[in-house]
Specification:
The protein is α+β, with helices and mostly antiparallel strands and about 400 residues long. It has eleven helices and 15 strands. About 0% of the residues have low confidence.
């Protein structure tokens, strides 16, 4: 936990995808995406994604549907985790592996040397612990491995990356619901109880099931000045949809839906999702089959990612979030927001903006439910652009020309 940060609060979130109980061939799933109807939003995918509705009383994005996650706690960096992860402390990053990305280009949330901040727990581990803990608090889904099964955990070493893909994550049925419910209440009351729970239940947070996906920062000048987050995004693929129950405090409703179904509900103004959710669900639309999404996330997991601080642009007939790589993105960005450079005002129309930009990487909209992604640059670190054509849930025109 970086207490030296003055302008950002560090957080972690996980995109939780879970397989449906029915199965389809990959070919039939891809064929289903070619002709998406209202009834086919579910059948085009063999998995669903967990979204949680924030309380209307929340001080940040009230009533929004978000991925599970939240603020990092000092207990996520506690030295007590060393004993729980004792079998893995000699492996690189506790067996998660070392990202190939050059340290100088790593987002600060990942690059910061946590040992210099007084914690022996690597940031790549602590933020995964945070994501697992917050998912348990908000949804009741516990991504944990029983201690007696730790010998079967696949770890990354300094050797070449194995070609053998690990299986989809299966949740343990070892603990009864009432026992987990008791511990969930204790963890919600005090985050440090998560350590006690893992010790008592003889389990480990399944940090190996979470694959690095991205790093989003709250745009400057868009939300409350006190609500700015530097969030590590992970993705986890479960074999089947788990028992889920929202906490009825911060979260008032949960929703398991396919990526195209979420985007369709958003465009129909049935739910509201923030730009990061819109963007990443669009990425997932490349993979109607869970095993393909899992393979991509696993193979890409050690490539790294960019830090994305959207710059909010306002023009006479639209607004936009300008992302790194766009011709309009500033060469130097004041992440503190002290210079007031988080909002860019321009007199050009949307048509002029599109015509005059050789490189585009932007999320454009006329109202909160009409955003679309305009992108003609190639993503870094072997990532994918969002799939945003009309065939996937009637989202938007396909503006990716890669």
């Amino acid at each position: 936990m970086n207490t030296a940060l003055k302008h950002w609060r560090e957080a972690a979130t996980v995109i939780l995808a879970a397989g449906l109980r029915r199965t389809q061939s990959a070919d039939s799933l891809k064929a289903g995406l070619e002709k998406v109807t209202d009834e086919a939003h579910k059948s085009a995918f063999d998995y669903q994604v967990l979204l949680l509705k924030r309380s209307g009383h929340s001080g940040f994005m009230p009533n929004a549907y978000v991925f599970p996650g939240g603020l990092v706690d000092s207990s996520d960096f506690s030295s007590e985790w060393e004993e729980i992860f004792k079998a893995f402390t000699e492996a690189p990053n506790y067996g998660i592996g070392v990202v190939k990305q050059l340290p100088a280009t790593r987002p600060p949330i990942f690059a910061t040397d946590r040992a210099q901040l007084g914690s022996p727990i690597p940031g790549d581990v602590a933020f995964r612990i945070c994501a697992v803990r917050e998912t348990f608090e908000e949804s009741g889904v516990l991504l944990a491995v029983p201690k007696h099964e730790e010998s079967g955990i696949r770890v990354h070493t300094d050797d070449a990356y194995s070609d053998t893909q690990p299986p989809l994550t299966r949740l343990s049925g070892l603990w009864k619901k009432d026992l987990l419910s008791k511990w969930r209440s204790l963890v919600i009351g005090n985050s440090s109880n998560f350590i006690k729970m893992c010790r008592e239940l003889q389990c480990l947070p399944n940090i190996w099931a979470l694959h690095e996906w991205g790093n989003w920062l709250t745009p400057i000048g868009v939300y409350s000045k006190q609500r700015r987050y530097d969030t590590a995004f992970y993705i986890c693929c479960l074999h089947e949809t788990p028992y889920t129950l929202h906490d009825d405090k911060e979260i008032v409703h949960f929703k398991w839906s396919t990526p195209s179904e979420v985007l369709h509900s958003y465009k129909s103004k049935e739910i509201w999702i923030a730009p990061p959710q819109f963007y990443d669900l669009g990425r997932m639309c490349h993979f109607p089959a869970l095993r393909d999404l899992h393979r991509f996330a696993w193979q890409r997991s050690l490539e790294g990612c960019e830090q994305w601080l959207p710059i909010h642009l306002v023009s006479p007939d639209c607004f936009a979030n300008i992302l790194p790589g766009d011709a309009l993105y500033p060469e130097k960005v004041d992440t503190s927001g002290m210079s007031g450079g988080g909002v860019m005002k321009i007199e050009k129309s949307l048509e002029e903006l599109q015509r005059d930009s050789a490189k585009m990487h932007r999320i454009v909209g006329q109202d909160p439910y009409s955003i679309s992604i305009h992108m003609n640059i190639r993503p870094k670190y072997n990532h994918l652009p969002p799939l945003c054509n009309e065939d996937v849930g009637g989202i938007t025109k396909n503006n990716s020309k890669l």
